[in-house]
Amino acid sequence: MAKTKELSKDTRNKIVDLHQAGKTESAIGKQLGLKKSTVAAIIRKWKTYKTTDNLPPSGAPCKISPRGVKMITRTVRKNPRTTRGDLVNDLQRAGTKVTKPTISNTLRRQGLKSCSARRVPLLKPVHVQACLKFAREHLDDPEEDWENVIWSDETKIELFGKNSTRRVWRTKNAELHPKNTIPTVKHGGGNIMLWGCFSVKGPGRLICVKERMNRAMYREILSENLLPSARALKMKCGWVFQHDNDPKHTARVTKEWLRKKHFKVLEWPSQCPDLNPIGNLWRELKIHVAQQQPQNITALEEICMEEWAKIPATVCENLVKTYRKCLISVIANKGYITKY
């Protein structure tokens, strides 16, 4: 809503004079061309404070000058990994002594919030361009096409421990900008590996991989779980299978097996896991598993299976139906996803 123009002091005093003369709020409003609520507010203020002047703002004055605010805002926008301690020292050198909470409050008023840096794969320029190319080519694909895809991927889940975090200052919806993330390599750590798939109809099968996965094991997983998942999800004829460009997935034996089975495979850009909506399911699964606090590998596997089966079909449906927004985000941010 647009801010209304402030009444002049003469107008406010005239409202009070007319009120003291016995006129009603409605009559005053009609005479001066003002809303009744505006007239009532001025009269209330006069009755309470015996003045119509603007009152001084409540609360303590800001400790950081406007120039100081600009300085620290410019600093964290240039380097989001700047700590509050660094900013305290910068201001102290400039002659202003403040605390860390003051820094947080000041930056929050500028739309910046301290958040944990999101861990994402380290992308080379060629990977970014590949993601951008994929998004542009598929932007106008009908929603029905995405509803006919079985999405798949692998992930690792730790039994104990928590990955180290790094806090960054960022604006809303900018959690995946390169400056606000910590690069990682794929499958870095964890205690059990899972393979899973889903479609717009809901989650498919989830498999715990007991040994180090190679191309032969991956082909075995597909042969035992892909078609049963498609049947359980009641996929339409001509459904499409999605997996990334992991060497196990692109191996000749895997491609030949998929070709012999007449499975259509979605062409996928390298190193673009954030384009795969199953990543959202993995995040939800890990949160729910961590809340259960499993104490051994067996319990970890059982809880993963239980929580995966609990994922509502509506969650899967929403991920697929909003996939176009993901592609729009990639294009708008030149190959990077900032929100999905």
TrEMBL record:
Lineage: Eukaryota, Metazoa, Chordata, Craniata, Vertebrata
Domain Tc1-like transposase DDE: 149-299
Biological process per Gene Ontology, one example term: DNA integration
Domain Sleeping Beauty transposase HTH: residue ranges: 1-52
GO molecular function terms attached to this record: DNA binding
InterPro entries in alphabetical order: Homeodomain-like_sf, HTH_SB, RNaseH_sf, Tc1-like_DDE_dom, Transposase_5, Transposase_Tc1-like, WH-like_DNA-bd_sf
Pfam families: DDE_3, HTH_SB, HTH_Tnp_Tc3_2
PANTHER family recorded: SI:DKEY-77F5.3, TRANSPOSABLE ELEMENT-RELATED
Domain Transposase Tc1-like: 71-140
Protein name per the record: Transposase Tc1-like domain-containing protein
Source superkingdom: Eukaryota
SUPFAM superfamilies named among the record's database cross-references: Homeodomain-like
